Amino acid sequence: MTLPPGQRAVDGFPRFGTHLHRPAPPVPADPVIELRGALAEAVTLSVTDIAEMPRQEVRADFHCVAGWSATDLLWEGVPFKTLYRTRVEPLLRADAPVSHVYFEGLDGYRSVVLLEDALADDVLIADRLDGQPLDSDHGAPVRLVSPGQYGYVNIKHLCRIEFHTSEPPVTDRWSPLAGHGRARVWKEERHRYLPGRVVRPVYRTLIGPIRALSARGSGPTPR
Ligand SMILES: Nc1nc2c(c(=O)[nH]1)N[C@H]1C(S)=C(S)[C@@H](COP(=O)(O)O)O[C@H]1N2
Ligand SMILES: [Mo]
Question: By its UniProt entry, which InterPro entries does this protein fall under (predicted)?
Fold first, then answer.
């Protein structure tokens, strides 16, 4: 099994992230995803309606920028590309070409990716993992899954997607840990300004403390 540079396999799939000090947000009774930004009109889609769109399975490893990888996960959901082509493109203004997509979760966690990266064939709005409905550890009711990009762009508890014509301001842009804008795992794009292999050892030391913050994480602590 080959992993991207600087990654180590872990047993199982830990709950992880920067919002671990709080329990996962409760799933609303009728969850929706709001589509906003450079659209002729705002759209609110129910998660149930999205689940009825043409579906796809993606078998992939999952890579956290801190250096652990969960291997051989089976995701199910609707390709982001399908959502974009059918629900977003018809509403785009000709004078406003979309370049960036912003994703936000119910816990306030957010990420920005290039439209080009979001349209990759293996990017899903996933609602199932390994044959089960997504649980709250891993992003219920739905999460973004982009296996070619580090975990931090794989937004859990997805509730809002915005379409932008330039890079929207990201809150952590000037933080010492500011993530790379593309986050491609095979190119080791870990950090916004520093080479991936330079920050590797620093990021690795964060795994333990981050896990320790977990209010109700599950699974083993990655090494
Ligand atoms: N809503 C939300 N999404 C999130 C995070 C988070 O804290 N909140 N953490 C990110 C990070 S850094 C990683 S590595 C993965 C972890 O996914 P997991 O908890 O399913 O392992 O979720 C990403 N998506
Ligand atoms: Mo991560």
Answer: Mopterin_OxRdtase_euk, OxRdtase_Mopterin-bd_dom, OxRdtase_Mopterin-bd_sf
Question: What is the pTM for the complete model shown?
Answer: 0.93
Q: Which protein residue has the closest C-alpha to ligand 1 atom 19?
A: 15
Number of structural domains (the chain) is 1
CA of 97 to the centre of ligand 2 (A): 30
The CATH number of the domain holding residue 58 is: 3.90.420.10
DSSP state letter for 84: I
Is the separation of the CB atoms in 179 and 148 below 8 Å? no
Confidence label for 172 from pLDDT (cuts 50, 70 and 90): low
Determine which of 94-98, 164-168, 193-197, 210-214 has the lowest per-residue pLDDT on average. 210-214
CA of 167 to the centre of ligand 1 (A): 21
Structure tokens, 74: 């089976």
The two beta strands, 68-79 and 8-10, are parallel
29 CA distance to ligand 2 middle (Å): 28
Q: Which two tokens stand for residue 110?
A: 């957010």
* 188 within domain boundaries: yes
